[in-house]
Write a structure and sequence with these properties.
elongated, about 425 residues, RsdA/BaiN/AoA(So)-like_dom, alpha+beta, FAD, about 25% strand, FAD/NAD(P)-binding domain, BaiN-like
């Protein structure tokens, strides 16, 4: 167990709070407003709360998903098991009920994404702040936390900001990760956790578009593919397979299948993409060979229309492979056929980098989950210390899964303190 450094600071605030929450984002606001019959101080470094919530879903705030909770557990990579207690103690239905009781009408789309019916993220933020007000939570803004320590003699935490020092019996660190740093998510929570003895898994961007080497599709921006299959290769070994919708932009590849699985990708990895509707390369190659052989008197461009792919895409593939538009199928030699088939069903793109924190929607890495009690969100190292939200090493798929986990972990931390 890591050794906790005990530091003593002069107490400048006139009050010792039952709970101090650092960070007024989704997790911090929800934790603060869920604590009952206790004095709560919520500290926010920005001049207003919920800045990242206001950006979510392009300002519309897809705050949860309507899928079954059993599916939720599959939407956090390897972290579903860690989040199970939190997610089932405060579910997607609980989240909808919470906001509707707060006067926010909600709407669920066919794809499962749930929004405020107004499609205004400000409604979500205002509901959380109003709940904090009703529960007498004291919120202070424009105070960046510089240091936290625990005075074991007095059984309290000391939180030193740029303006003051605050004391509290319990401390919840809910400052988020590093994505969208202009909202205040600068990763400072990692340093606070480390100073209290916790280990930080190396943060990196996730839910991010992927930049590839020698990107060939910049002129196909806006073209998308539904439910395609992708395999991820590293050092000539296949390590992952996934499927979903993909999008070409003018500078990178994106769409849910890329964003959701960017957590697994590293520089130098190879993505082999099956743009066809066939379940595997072998079936497509057999079918394509038969089509080419039976269409000798037709040109290749005409035959490619049968693949039911965007014309601009098939034209681009012909350009990459160097096949002329008037080339007849009977004139297509074995090497050209092989290259053409690979372009459609095993198209290789090498990962150059992920989109940085300015465009990544979440952060992978953070406070090590094995050092947190998943049934309470309390530290296993420091009694009375809790974590909530993306400062913890978890990240969810696009579609409302991250914000729901932020609500759920914040709620579980609060409930754990309520039971003390």
């Amino acid at each position: 167990m890591a050794k906790v450094i005990i530091q003593k600071e002069k107490q400048c605030d006139n009050m010792k709070y039952d709970v101090i929450v650092i960070g007024a984002g989704a997790a911090g606001l929800f934790a603060a407003c869920s604590i009952k019959d206790k004095s709560v101080l919520l500290i926010e470094k920005n001049s207003a709360a919920g800045r990242k919530i206001l950006l979510s879903g392009a300002g519309q705030c897809n705050f949860t998903n309507s899928c079954e909770m059993s599916e939720f557990l599959t939407r956090y990579g390897e972290r579903g098991r860690f989040l199970k207690t939190a997610l089932f103690s405060f579910t997607n239905k609980n989240a909808v009920e919470f906001f509707e009781k707060s006067g926010v009408e909600t709407i669920a789309r066919e794809d499962g994404k749930v929004f405020p019916a107004s499609f205004k993220s400000s409604d979500i933020v205002e509901a959380l702040i109003e709940k904090c007000r009703k529960n007498n939570v004291k919120i202070i803004y424009d105070e960046s936390v510089e240091k936290v320590s625990r005075d074991e003699d007095k059984d309290m935490f000391l939180v030193k900001t740029i303006k003051n020092t605050h004391a509290g019996t319990n401390l919840i660190i809910a400052v988020g990760g590093k994505s969208y740093p202009n909202t205040g998510s600068s990763g400072d929570g990692y340093e606070l956790a480390k100073s209290l003895g916790h280990t930080i898994e190396q943060p990196k961007p996730c839910l991010a578009p992927v930049y590839v080497e020698n990107y060939p599709f910049s002129d196909l921006s806006g073209i998308s593919f539904g439910n395609i299959k992708i395999s991820l290769w590293r050092n000539n070994k296949k390590i992952k397979e996934f499927s979903g919708d993909m999008l070409f932009t003018h500078v990178n590849i994106s769409g849910p299948v890329i964003l959701n699985n960017s957590r697994y990708m590293e520089k130098g990895d190879v993505l082999k993409i099956n743009f066809t509707s066939f379940p595997n390369a072998e079936e497509f190659k057999t079918d394509f060979e038969n089509i080419i052989f039976s269409s000798g008197k037709y040109n290749v461009k005409t035959v490619l229309k049968s693949l039911d792919m965007p014309k601009r895409f098939t034209d681009k593939i012909m350009e990459i492979t160097g096949i002329q538009e008037d080339k007849m199928c009977s004139e297509l030699d074995k090497s050209k056929r092989k290259k053409l088939m690979e372009m459609f069903c095993e198209h290789s793109l090498t990962v150059e980098r992920l989109g940085d924190y300015n465009i990544a929607m979440a952060t992978r890495g953070g406070v090590k989950t094995s050092e947190i009690n998943q049934k309470t969100m309390e530290s296993k190292i420091v009694p009375g210390l809790y974590f909530a939200g993306e400062v913890i090493d978890y990240d969810g798929d696009t579609g409302g899964f991250n914000i729901q986990a932020n609500f759920s972990t914040g709620h579980l931390a609060a409930e754990s303190i309520n039971k003390k």
